[in-house]
Every structure is written in C-alpha cells, then in structure tokens.
Amino acid sequence: MDSKSSIVLEIGGRYTKCGYSPESSPRFIIPTDLLPLNISSYLSGGASFDNFKKEITSNNETIITTNQIPTQLPTQSQLKESLFIFFKTIFLNYLLCKSDERKIIIVENIFLPRLFRECMVSVLFEQYKVPLIVFINPTASLIPTLRTTALLIDSGFSETRVLPIYEGIGILKAYKSVSLGSETLINQLKQYLQSTIINGIIINNETNQSITDSTICNQLLNDIIIMNNNSTQLLEDIITRCCFCSFKNNNNNNNNNNNNNNNNNNNNNEIQINNINYRISKEYSIVIDGKIRKGLIDILYNDVNNNNKEEEEEEEETGNIAKTILNTLLKCEYDQRKPLSHNILLLGGTTMLTGFKKRLVLELHKQLNKDNSIYKKELYGLIGHFQFINHPFENNYLSWLGGSILATALEHVHSKITLESYLNAPSQFKRSQLIPEWEKLTNINNYTQIAQATMGTTTNPLQFNSTSSLFSPFTSSSDLSNYLNK
Predict the structure, then answer these.
(1) In Å, how far are 136, 139, 155, 452 from 166, measured between CA atoms?
(2) Is residue 252 part of a domain?
(3) 286-295 pLDDT, tens per residue?
(4) What phi and psi values does residue 18 have, to the nearest 5 degrees?
(5) Do 205 and 331 reside in the same domain of the chain?
(6) What is the SS3 string spanning 71-100?
(7) How far, in Å, are 103, 131, 422 from residue 417 at the CA level?
(8) By CB count within 10 A, which of 77, 205, 332, 387 is most buried?
(9) Residue span of the signal peptide, if any (predicted)?
(10) Domain-located, residue 64
(11) CB-based contact 10:27 (threshold 8 Å)
(12) Boundary-marking domain end, from 352, 382, 412
C-alpha cells in the first residue's frame, strides 16, 4: 500500500481534478457530476439556497426574480448516494484503481459545507474502505511557486475568493468572497443570445447566408442553446474561444478639462472588434457580436456607487472583483500590504481568459484613483506595485499540484484521518469530530515550512520521482537558489 501512489482530488463547483501523486498535472479534469443534485454554488462556499434569484442587466440594474422551482439544500442521504456514484466513476472509469489500496488527498475550499465533508468522508471510509484521507487547504498552491507570501485570487465557477497568505500563514480575518465567476459570464451570454434572436444571428454553413425566418431562429436557439443539456459546456467554449478582457484607459490623474478634450479622441480611436462566427453544428453557425466579445467580461467589474450599508452588502454578493481585492488588503496590516500586492497568485479557470491580468491591474488602479474613496486614502501607495507570480503551470490546477507535491510528505501534515481511527470511533458524533475544521486552528498548516523541513531528506516534496525536476524552469531563479544553498 505504501508503494502505491496516492490519489489527489480537487472537487470544485464545476470541475473536479483527479490524478496521482507525484505527477505534475491531473490526469483528468471532469465535470463535478452529482446528479440528480445541482449544487455547484453550494460546493463553492456553502451558499444558501432559496427561491430568489438576482439578475444584473446590461444597464447595471439588479432585478430580483422568483424561481419557479425553489432549490432546496441536499439531505445527507442524497449527498451520500450522489457521492457514491461520483467516486465510483472516478475510481473505475478514470483512474482504474482499487480504492482500498490508495490514500486520498483532497484539496478543498476552506469553507466547504460541513455536511458535504462529513458525507464525503463517510462514503470513502465506509463504502470504499480507503486507508487514509488527507485534507489540504488552498495554501498548498504556494508550494509549486516556492513562495511563502501571496495574495490568492481564486476565480472559479460560482464565486471569486481572495485569501492573503503572509509567511505561509493564511490571514482568515481578511478573507473575502464575491459571487462572480464563469457562471456569471455564462448567464450573461445566455441572456444576450435570448434577447438578440433577430435576423442574421444564425448562418447556414452551406449557403453562408443568414436565416431570415425568426421562427426558425427561435427554434434553433431553443434546441441548441437553451434546452440542450450540454448548453453550459457550449457557452463556456464560446467564452473561451471568442471573448477576451478589453483594456480601458482608467487613469484619472489628468485634469477634468483634459479628460473632456480626450473623450472624443478616445471614442474615435476605439478599436472596433469584428463579429465572429461560431460553429454550433455541421449545418449552422451562430454570430457573436464584437461588442459582446469585448464587453462580456465587464460584468466582473460592475462599478456601483454605494451610499448606504445595504447597498454595500449587496455589492459584496454581486459586486466587483477589484473592490473585493482592495477590501482584503484593507483588512491586512500596513506592513503586509505591499508584499502581498507584489505577489498576486491567480487560481481558477476564469483567470485564464485572455487579458485578465492586465484588465485586473487597470481596474485596481481605477479604484485607487477615485477621489474621496477609502481606497485612495489607505491604499494609494500601492499604485504601480501590483505584480503577479509567474510560473509555468496552468491556473486551474495549481492547487491540485500543491496537493500532489505534499502527498510525498504526509507524515508532516496533521489534517488527516485513518480508516482505523474512523471506524473505531464510538459514535457518529465522535467520527465527525475527527474531520479537521480550519476555523478551529490558530493558523493554517504552514505547508511551505513542511517543504523546507524535508529539503535534503529522502522525502523531497519539491522534486518529482522522474528524472526531470518539476522546477526545472526555475533553476536560474534566486528563490530556488536560496532554498538549495541552505
């Protein structure tokens, strides 16, 4: 059992990464299919379920509507049944292994719902008899970058989470989240497709002519986009291939007169983005307007001037990624802010959109340049200091990679449960007490110190078993040299 590689899982609201340690990338990235349950936002951060839904129109107006079928929280039996089928698919269809011979490393969101964690542990131990379960928190994403300080910005499917880590310790008091992610972009694109059912939006591939019959357009969009079970994947592909983050001039250092004189020039010099045809089948293609291609991402930086606390609370749920990051920095100590701004680490698939980094910096500068704002009073000195950690890995599996490395040093990780200790617990309550809770810890496990402690020993989490080092692109960097010279 000890000679076999451990299984590393990162269960997200939309996708699950699964693979073996100590490999440098997950073998499969599969949809988190917990059918018949649809609990993507519940997995992201324990979001409450009700029959009210907020929608943001193109005019930045918030409309509250009522769902026809109110969503209810899943029960324990429902979760266990769905998780049993889900893990069976992973073990038998993808990883092709016996569950009772493999240790399980779970890279999780620190605010994953308690009920889901209990059901997951129960299924893995009682049904699949796994020998060991280890819980890894998001600070493990720093291990592949060889950093101890970073501002983690995890923009996933349902929400964006911001967690500052200073010298390997997570600052939980400054943790912020906002309900913005790829799901927001998908809903916005779906509204566009539904509202622009006009002549010319669908093109026949054989004749290369637009379909003029509105009834046919309606039927095609309903069949292909709206009512299709794979519509979410199709819309995700449209966003990935066709959309990008546009760059706007957000500098407000000039005088008002100069800005007024330059407005006309900026409008005249604005880059025109061409429409693009996206093939949805052999017969038809759909036209994606240029304004949607460059303007779809703007909803992530919805800027609303709040005058009362109620509007501020609403903005925390719907609001602005840039403001969420600055609010996190405000919660940090003064001497921590600049090191954090120098080490921004992007996680999640949403951050992989073209131009995301540059647009994020421009939006941060825009908020810092606003007159009479708390950001300008407290954080204005950070202008020009926002820098990103460069690494050769993809943002969407960086946390998984940290768990893969730490799987080679499990003896130093405390957040683990063995099958024997779980089954020997006298009651279900005692079993639930074995599951680690991050809010009960005085500090999050310092995984960077674990990596440093194992340097030079037989177990080296910074070196894969293969002949090529995981960090070969960093052999000339000062960070790695400092570690190796110790």
Answers:
(1) 18, 10, 20, 16
(2) yes
(3) 889 888 999 9
(4) -135, 145
(5) no
(6) CCCCCHHHHHHHHHHHHHHHHHHHCCCCHH
(7) 10, 9, 7
(8) 332
(9) none
(10) no
(11) no
(12) 382
109, two tokens: 């969101």
Q: At 419, phi and psi to the nearest 5?
A: -65, -40
Do 29 and 15 contact (CB within 8 A), yes or no?
yes
CA distance 344 to 352: 14
137, 110 Cβ separation under 8 angstroms: yes
Contact in structure between 145 and 345 (CB atoms under 8 Å):
yes
Structure tokens at 2: 């000890």
- Is 472 contained in some domain? yes
Peptide bond into 36 cis (omega under 30): yes
**Final residue before a domain boundary, out of 298, 328, 362:** 298
Q: Which domain holds residue 255?
A: 182-298
User: Between the ranges 86-90, 413-417, 438-442, where is the mean pLDDT highest?
Assistant: 86-90
Residue type, 46: G
Q: What is the pLDDT of residue 212?
A: 75
Q: Are residues 101 and 163 in the same domain?
A: no
Q: Which two tokens stand for residue 239?
A: 């966003």
Which amino acid is present at 11?
I
Reported confidence tier of residue 83, pLDDT bands at 50, 70, 90: very high
Buried b (16+ CB within 10 A) or exposed e, 101-132: ebbbbbbbbbbbbebbbbbbbbbbbeebebbb
